[in-house]
Amino acid sequence: KAAQKLNPTVPIKFHISSRTDAGVHALCNAAHIDIQRAPGKPAFQEKELISSLNYHLKPEPIRILNAHRVAASFHARFSALSRTYVYRLLVGCTHHSEVPVFERDLCWAPGGGYLDVPAMQDGAQFLLGTHDFSTFRSHNSETPFRSPVRTILQIDIQPSSGFLSHHYEHRGLEFWELKFRSRSFLYRQVRRMVGTLVAVGMGKLKPHHIKELLEMKDARALPPNAMAPPSGLFLKSVEY
What is the pTM of this model? Predict the structure, then answer.
């Protein structure tokens, strides 16, 4: 809608690199548009385009950070080499009411207050590489038409800092980030992988159970409630 207000001569077609579930965040996403101007009008300069789009996006919780002229063959979704997602976990809360108010809806605080991170890191190794991830996808209208085979290029589980966390260090809260990189992911795949890894961290599963779940190739094999909520998930970047 913002681009349509720039008076193109042909209706705008907008293509985004990645769609996300409701409640999932994007630190940085990418999209492409074709803007055809009236005869005699020069193409938009990159800075001009950024400021014009942001002017019309004022009411929305979104901002254009960069713009680049690309070849006609470029496609924001299909030209992507990889996508990186980050999932934020908060450890140390025995009840959801203990989540800092400024972190609400920006992380997941699993009950129990403790996670065995080394066990989670061991379990994550089974997810690396190329596999049939049928167990780790939710079904939607595209499921029958999309291959369940994906290649996970990177999984990292690292300590992180929370927003203003130095002000509540005395509460003993810990933030962890799970980073996943792949060319593409299946529907809700990251959230299901995170939920399963957290089950390992809580001692409900052993690391080797991740391998067994992969080999089952059955979405129904995942333990109940093993899908992480959307609030902790962030699309970090799209690489081209």
Answer: 0.91
